Amino acid sequence: MDFFFQYIDPRDSEKLSQAELVVIDEAAAIPLPIVKKLISGPYLVFLASTINGYEGTGRSLSLKLLQQLREQAAGLLKNDKGDQIMAPVKGLAFFFRLRLNFSIFSSKVEAWLNRVLCLNACDAHRLVSGMPPPKDCELLYVNRDTLFSFHKASETFLHSIMAIYVSAHYKNSPNDLQMLSDAPAHHLFVLVGPLSDTQAQLPEVLAVIQIAMEGALSSSTVSDNMKRGRRAAGDLLPWTISQQFMARPEKPKNRLIGPTDLRICSLDFDKNIMFQDKDFPTLCGARIVRIAVHPDFQSLGYGSRALELLQEYFQGVVPCLKEDQEEFERKARAKQIENPESLVLLEEVVEPRTDLPPLLHRLSERRAEKLDYLGVSFGLCVPLLKFWKRAGFVPVYVRQSANDLTGEHTCIMLKYMNQGSFLKVRCFMISPKMCSVEI
């Protein structure tokens, strides 16, 4: 029998009806909806994907599709009530996984690159401190200057954070590491177990929260950019909401309110429909960029506990014991250069600094920024919608077109932090039905 090998564009899955074997290389680089179509035929499928290293294409495949295939093969796609919790992949008879944990090239350059960019942060290691109750856990603020100081303890702590990112989040790249280290608007928090005053070692990380400060834009800046059809870098939530709800398009696009409602719809506590003025971009907010939980502690309440402590911190529930905050931060910085004009970058001696502030701070040791709201943007799915809804967030925006990589629709949810500054007693809502829906 003669066999023919032919390349097929991933979007032409209908041409595979007569195939006996389909090999998909770097499957994570192909949008998940297309991959699902490719593996739904009556043929044998080999999927290959690079997770780590400079050739890594992310873990969207392993964290989303392969997990579903594994559960489907084991008959776990239904909950305790017998309800289908996700659509099964057609034609799946069995599922088998092989994994290569080392490079086949043994390149010293690749090994160096992996160390520098934390590309060798594989699955998170198992914790030895046990499983403390979520209510006893504590949220700590991470000083990023110390985290990226190349200190031995800081390097170990950084690799543990990146390992949790790789294990629990579908999208990771060296750009994320650079943003975490350099972006001034980004902040990092970690959830750890109960701490003792005599503890001499760094605590084990249970969950990580990365946030980005957004908003506080002037009305003139927003107006000028909208007139020119431009969107400045950063400030994802203010710009997205401004473009969708304040630009007065001819036809409503990517909106969940009626075509005659030209501003953000909100409700007061009496469920009377109110309308926000065009001042949302001027409000100060924080976007939760990522919230990742250690694989051994997922779906056990640790992510919710970390989010709860973060909200209390920005709501002012945690008192700041450092009244001399500015003096504290001044002393925590590295020594200032006496004559900055004489410094030449090429002559700078790069070496570990010795005058670093502590790596971890209790929330009571740092004054919280004054925020009007907390927000999040994520790929809409039932588990995530339930998670954010339980935390008190409400949806204000759903994108009509699906994400090319995951096939999910982007959803933005908000929660107000300060009644006095956030439109007094009003909270962003869409409609009473959306707020009371049971999923």
UniProtKB/TrEMBL annotation:
Its main location: nucleus. GO terms for biological process: rRNA acetylation involved in maturation of SSU-rRNA; tRNA processing. Keywords: Acyltransferase, ATP-binding, Nucleotide-binding, Transferase, tRNA processing. It comes from the Eukaryota. GO terms for cellular component: 90S preribosome; nucleolus. Residues 161-247, 274-417 form the N-acetyltransferase domain. It is found in: Nucleus, Nucleolus. One of its GO terms (molecular function) is 18S rRNA cytidine N-acetyltransferase activity. InterPro entries: Acyl_CoA_acyltransferase, GNAT_dom, P-loop_NTPase, TcmA/NAT10_helicase, TmcA/NAT10/Kre33. Residues 4-120 form the TcmA/NAT10 helicase domain. The keyword tRNA processing applies. SUPFAM superfamilies: Acyl-CoA N-acyltransferases (Nat). It holds the Pfam family GNAT_acetyltr_2. The keyword ATP-binding applies. This is N-acetyltransferase domain-containing protein.
